[in-house]
């Protein structure tokens, strides 16, 4: 999957029943996040973090869904461990991608993946990706992680905020941007237009101008 590519409109089996991706996304934003296998330590901490942030996803009109190569029944049992660890019920669905249909369609697999009977997480080690998808059903951002490094979902939330504000306000964000920080005025917007929209602008370099978003 590449940025601005429309995601496949797959119908998938989850622990909450059958879901068609485009219908599920609807008119809002969505995050799909995958992991190699249920009942594994790093992934349990990650899914616990996502469950803890349920209110933050809802504030941003964003749905979340997990993906795993395990069965829907495994997902249901695993959710008890997730809740025990994270202290919050994981109410989002998890796709049962036991035949790798989703992993292949979204190009999530390592070059040398295998899916043997009695597989271990190492057999599909890099099926650990975050996809942020816009209301137009196209991919806006993706992040890939190895098995040993837990994802920072505060960064996923920050990136989601940046994407939503950028789309709404036609601006860009500098490195390490956080809510309330200056934004970058696009090069295509001239100084007069920028001042009309933002008020004061700061010209750091001829091609780099910063401003505050209107409250």
Tell me the span between the first and last alpha carbons.
35 Å
Total number of β-strand segments? 10
Q: Main sheet, how many strands, which sense, barrel? A: 5 strands, mixed
Instruction: Estimate the strand proportion.
Output: 15-25%
Judged by helices, strands and strand pairing, the structural class is alpha+beta
Bin the helical content: 25-40%
Helical run tally: 7
Radius of gyration: 19 Å
Name the overall outline: elongated
Low confidence ranges: none
Name the assembly state: single chain
**Helix/strand order:** EEHEHHEHEHEEHEHEE
Mean pLDDT: 92
Strand order of the largest sheet: 5-4-3-6-7
Structure write-up:
The protein is α+β, with helices and mostly antiparallel strands and 215 residues long. The protein is built from seven helices and ten strands. Strands 5-4-3-6-7 form a five-stranded mixed beta sheet. It has a three-stranded antiparallel beta sheet with strand order 8-10-9, with helices on one face. A hairpin with a 5-residue loop joins strand 6 and strand 7. Helix 2 crosses helix 4 (72-86).
């Amino acid at each position: 999957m590449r940025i601005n590519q429309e995601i496949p409109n797959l119908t998938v089996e989850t622990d909450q029943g059958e879901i068609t991706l485009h219908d599920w996304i609807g008119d809002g934003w969505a995050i799909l996040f995958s992991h190699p296998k249920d009942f594994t330590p790093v992934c349990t901490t990650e899914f616990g973090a996502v469950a803890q942030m349920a209110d933050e996803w809802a504030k941003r009109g964003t749905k979340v869904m997990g993906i795993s190569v395990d069965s829907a029944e495994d997902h249901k049992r695993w959710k008890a461990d997730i809740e025990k660890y994270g202290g919050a019920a994981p109410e989002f669905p998890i796709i049962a991608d036991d035949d790798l249909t989703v992993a292949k369609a979204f190009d999530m697999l390592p070059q040398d993946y295998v899916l043997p009977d009695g597989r271990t997480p190492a057999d599909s080690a890099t099926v650990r990706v975050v996809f942020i998808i816009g209301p137009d059903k196209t991919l806006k951002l993706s992040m890939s992680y190895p098995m040993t490094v837990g994802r920072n979902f505060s960064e996923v939330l920050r990136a989601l905020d940046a994407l939503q504000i950028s789309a709404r306000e036609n601006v860009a964000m500098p490195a390490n941007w956080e809510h309330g920080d200056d934004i970058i005025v696009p090069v295509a917007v001239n100084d007069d237009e920028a001042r009309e929209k933002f008020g004061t602008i700061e010209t750091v370099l001829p091609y780099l101008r910063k401003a505050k978003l209107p409250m």
